[in-house]
Amino acid sequence: DDYDIPMHLSTTVVRVHGKYNLEGVTVAEIDPQTGTVKDETKRFVPCDLLVLAVGLIPENELSKGAGIVIDESTAGPELNDSFMTSVPGIFAAGNVAAVFDLVDYVSESGRIAARGAADYIRNEKAETEYVDVEAGNNIRIAVPQKVRKSDCRKTRFFIRVGKPLKNGTLSIECDGINVFKKTYPYLLPPEMVVVETEIEAAGTIRISAE
Fold first, then answer.
1. What is the mean pLDDT of residues 64-88?
2. What single DSSP character describes residue 58?
3. DSSP assignment, residue 69?
4. Which residues pair with 92 in a beta bridge?
5. Cis amide leading into 144 (omega within 30)
6. Higher pLDDT, 9 or 150
7. Within the chain, where are the H helices?
8. Strand 146-148 relative to strand 139-143: parallel, antiparallel, unpaired?
9. Could you tell me if 112 and 94 are in contact, meaning their C-beta atoms sit under 8 angstroms apart?
10. Across the strands, what pairs with 171?
11. Are 166 and 183 in contact (CB under 8 A)?
């Protein structure tokens, strides 16, 4: 039979029923402000199969062995806008860099790293200054974490929010000046948002969602 399971942005399983065989689950909504279960939304759904989707982390064995700085938010290497790590000449891409939700983003990260590696080979001794990318309000992941100081140039950011938002606005500021602002019907933690914008990087870049 089909059951009308509440399709709320923050619906979650709060209890599994059955001793020897699965008999059903209790689902409920989570208050996005407090993170607590909304008791009035609890509902029992009979079922004999439960599929759980769990988070992933990048494979860091080689990165750590090479002395690369690991970013706490992504659990992957700290990257600049060419996807070069903190160790000059070592680049990261795909799910080594961060957990991407679409293979298209994995491929794009590979292209960015490949172009960055080619540029590095051609200008191996060039010294470059970077500005930090700050994960602001309700931003869990922002890649890259550093952007080259330069004249106005296009930079691509891979972003995940911390809490779900309906009609949420994503904004990017550089030196207090807004360089990107867009409202999305939904901003969800499992879904990565990719933004390409022109930035004249001189000071800290801040990404926020509200």
1. 92
2. -
3. P
4. none
5. yes
6. 150
7. 61-65, 103-122
8. unpaired
9. no
10. 181, 208
11. no
pLDDT value for 165: 92
pLDDT score for 55: 67
CA–CA gap between residue 1 and residue 61 (Å, rounded): 46
112, two tokens: 């960015």
As a whole number of angstroms, the distance between CA 74 and CA 56 comes to 10
Question: Residue 128 pLDDT more than 50?
Answer: yes
End-to-end CA distance of the chain: 39
Q: What is the predicted pLDDT for the residue at 197?
A: 87
Which residues have a Cβ under 8 Å from the Cβ of 133 and sit 6 or more positions away?
142, 144, 145, 146, 147, 157, 204, 205, 206, 207
Sheet-wide strand order for 43-46: 11-17, 24-29, 43-46
Closest by CA to 94, choosing from 80, 108, 78, is 108
- pLDDT-above-90 percentage for the chain: 49
